[in-house]
Design brief:
InterPro entries: AminoTfrase-like_pln_mobile (IPR019557), MAIN-like (IPR044824). This is Aminotransferase-like plant mobile domain-containing protein. The chain is mainly alpha-helical and about 240 residues long. The chain has helices at about 5-10, 25-30, 50-60, 85-90, 120-130, 145-165, 175-180, 185, 190-205, 220-230; strands spanning about 35, 40-45, 45-50, 115, 170-175. It has a 3-stranded antiparallel β-sheet. Strand 2 (about 40-45) and strand 3 form a beta hairpin. The longest helix has 20 residues, at about 145-165.
Length: about 240
């Protein structure tokens, strides 16, 4: 139903990375061998690292495009809504509660100072299209606007919660919303593989610090890279593929 929009954004491959189980012990071992000064893993046999070619092959994300630039400069407040509230409402048709509103708790409002809750957005749209909750199912016959909105929320969940996630995969920064709620064709002109690699480096460098206990970003790419380049640690596969 939403594949055509993902194709326009050159992000159709991300749908294959839902629910991937990450080997945390493997990631911990790799982080301990990561050197932020060189952006390389330091093994007994020598240094090696994840390259842009690796990311492109493993994720099928585009390379030869424009750089991904994230800016969270707020839009102007309009119609009694904050700038980001109005921006989200104008594209997705939903008013995200902020602190002090009737639909939000003061402790954890869905719309915060610099971020919005991915969990709240995805749940809202799933419920909206869930027949069990009096929602309208999303089908090929659904209005084009509804399919487009659902595709954008799907991308918010995948980009903010999987590929470019922070330590908590529940939140996405406003800067990403400018891209994911913008033009589909402009999204398709971005070098997503380059951004993914830079983000992986950033999170590996952060995780290599003693005070940090969690690692964000597309860690599953690091895992796939390790399986590819260090085959003796890859999981054994039975003849039947299990």
């Amino acid at each position: 139903v939403i594949l055509s929009f993902l194709i326009r954004a050159q992000l159709e491959s991300i749908r294959h990375f839902v629910g991937i189980k990450v080997d945390r012990q493997l990631i911990t071992v790799l982080v301990e061998r990561w050197r932020k000064e060189t952006h390389c893993f330091n093994f007994r046999e020598g240094e090696c690292t994840i390259t842009l070619k690796d990311v492109a092959i493993l994720t099928h994300l585009p390379i030869d495009s424009k750089a991904v630039c994230v800016s969270d400069h707020p839009p102007e407040d309009r119609d009694g809504l904050t700038g980001w509230q109005h921006f989200i409402h104008s594209v997705l048709g939903v008013k995200v509660p902020i602190k002090g509103s009737v639909d939000a708790t003061d402790r954890l409002p869905p719309l915060r100072k610099h971020q919005v809750s991915i969990t709240w957005l995805t749940k809202y749209f799933r419920d909206h299209h869930n027949p069990a909750k009096d929602g309208v199912p999303l089908t090929e016959e659904s209005p084009e606007l509804e399919k487009e909105r659902y595709a954008r929320v799907y991308l918010i969940g995948m980009i903010g919660g999987v590929f470019f996630s922070e330590k908590s995969s529940n939140l996405i920064s406003y800067g990403w919303l400018r891209i994911l709620l913008g033009s589909w064709d402009e999204m398709g002109e971005l070098s997503w593989a380059s951004a993914c690699l830079a983000n992986i480096y950033h999170h590996l460098c952060n995780a290599s610090l003693k005070a940090v206990r969690e690692v964000g970003g597309a860690i599953f790419v690091v895992q796939f890279w390790a399986w590819e380049h260090l085959p003796w640690i890859a999981p054994l596969q039975c003849p039947d593929g299990n």
